[in-house]
């Protein structure tokens, strides 16, 4: 009698099962990906905190002071430059004024006239102002040179201090890197700690439920878990280790497949055994040793698996209705049915006359 397992369903049903299996696999993959992402989001070591432990706070403060002072010096220099520019402009103006007045004075002298009182005053005034300006300019230049000296000195001091702090920071960086490595190692352990048991469970279920109608479901979950595990391993393990893990995993998988197929041939399962028996009976060959079943109208013929359909049948008609044992290997091939006492196939599950079932050996 047919069981649910033998029903193959319509094409649409089979297609739907395939599509939903893929959808299920994608959904399971997403779920695992979310879990892995959440674990990955666990905060790692804080570089600023580590740096604070490694840097001398006094030196850090001094560096900040230097930076402030350098900024102030830069502003001062800019200021002095502006003042110099203003004074320079003013001096140029005065120079023009003075040369104009001098020209006037020269013309007056040529005409033997004295320069007017006001012009005389303007000239001496301008000269005084010019000299005053020059003095200020000199002073500013002196100041500027001193400020530049100080700036240069501070820059040197700051650079050496910054170099010292950089050396300290290098130690902090090393410490941070080692802490980060440890953190990543624990993240990997946590993620694989969740994924690997799931993968093992999926593998066990895949093997156990191989014949089950729910096999596609388990296979989808298992495949999704396997992909996620591979991705996590690829992310956390250095490439040179990962390739060993990958090849090792492939070796195990291919080895398991080989063992499976070898065992299937050596210890056939009921379904494949039944198929093997059925095909042999269809070709009138002993299902165990392939020797022709020569009874009834085929009694005097000989054929093989290949030539069975080319053999000319004698005119005598009739069906296979006699007990028969393979003369080669001694396997009983046709026997009496215990229910209806007619002749039935020994190696097929049902009697062709009454349908009673017997378990296959
Ligand atoms: Zn035989
Ligand atoms: Zn029967």
Would you give an account of this structure?
There is one protein chain. The protein has 361 residues and is an all-alpha fold. Helices cover 68% and strands 3% of the residues. The protein is built from seven helices and three strands; from the N terminus they run αααααααβββ. Strands 1-2-3 form a three-stranded antiparallel β-sheet, with no helix packed on it. A hairpin with a 6-residue loop joins strand 1 (324-325) and strand 2 (332-336). Helix 1 (11-40) packs across helix 4 (117-208), helix 1 (11-40) packs parallel to helix 5 and helix 3 (57-110) packs antiparallel against helix 4. It is rod-shaped. 9% of the residues are buried. The structure holds zinc ion (2 copies). One zinc ion is lined by residues 337, 339-340, 342, 344, 351, 353-354, 356.
The helix count comes to 7
Q: What's the alpha carbon Rg, rounded to whole Å?
A: 51 Å
User: Beta-sheet strand percentage?
Assistant: under 5%
Mean pLDDT: 86
End-to-end gap: 18 Å
Bound ligands, each once: zinc ion
Order of helices and strands: HHHHHHHEEE
Task: Give me the secondary-structure category.
Answer: mainly alpha
Low-confidence stretches: 1-6
Keyword list:
361 residues; mainly alpha; 3-stranded antiparallel sheet; disordered N terminus; binds zinc ion
């Amino acid at each position: 009698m047919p069981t649910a397992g033998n029903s193959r369903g319509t094409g649409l049903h089979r297609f739907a099962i395939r599509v939903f299996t893929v959808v299920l696999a994608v959904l399971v993959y997403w779920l695992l990906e979310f879990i892995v992402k959440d674990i990955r989001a666990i905060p790692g070591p804080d570089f600023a905190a580590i740096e604070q432990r490694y840097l001398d706070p006094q030196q850090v403060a001094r560096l900040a002071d230097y930076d402030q002072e350098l900024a102030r010096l830069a502003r001062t220099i800019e200021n002095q430059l502006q003042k110099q520019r203003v004074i320079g402009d003013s001096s140029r103006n005065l120079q023009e004024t003075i040369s104009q007045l001098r020209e006037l004075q020269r013309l007056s002298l040529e005409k033997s006239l004295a320069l007017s009182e006001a012009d005389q005053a303007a000239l001496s005034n301008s000269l005084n102002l010019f000299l005053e300006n020059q003095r200020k300019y000199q002073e500013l230049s002196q100041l500027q040179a001193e400020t530049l000296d100080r700036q240069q000195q501070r820059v040197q001091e700051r650079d050496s201090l910054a170099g010292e702090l950089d050396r300290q920071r290098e130690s902090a960086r090393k410490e941070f890197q080692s802490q980060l490595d440890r953190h990543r190692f624990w993240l990997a352990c946590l993620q694989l700690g969740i994924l690997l048991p799931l993968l093992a469970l999926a593998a066990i279920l895949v093997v156990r439920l191989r014949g089950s109608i729910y096999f596609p479901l388990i296979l989808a979950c298992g495949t999704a878990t396997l992909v996620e595990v591979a991705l996590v391993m690829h992310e956390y393990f250095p490439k040179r280790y990962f390739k060993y893990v990958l090849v090792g995993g492939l070796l195990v998988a291919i080895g398991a497949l080989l063992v499976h197929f070898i065992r299937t041939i050596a210890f056939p399962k009921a379904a494949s055994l039944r198929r093997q028996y059925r095909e042999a009976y269809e070709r009138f060959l002993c299902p165990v040793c392939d020797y022709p079943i020569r009874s009834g109208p085929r009694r005097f013929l000989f054929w093989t698996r290949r030539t069975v359909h080319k053999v000319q049948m004698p005119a005598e008609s009739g069906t296979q209705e006699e007990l028969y044992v393979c003369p080669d290997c001694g396997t009983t091939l046709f026997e009496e049915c215990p229910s209806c006492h007619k002749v039935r196939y020994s190696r097929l599950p049902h009697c062709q006359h009454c349908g009673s079932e017997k378990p296959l050996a």
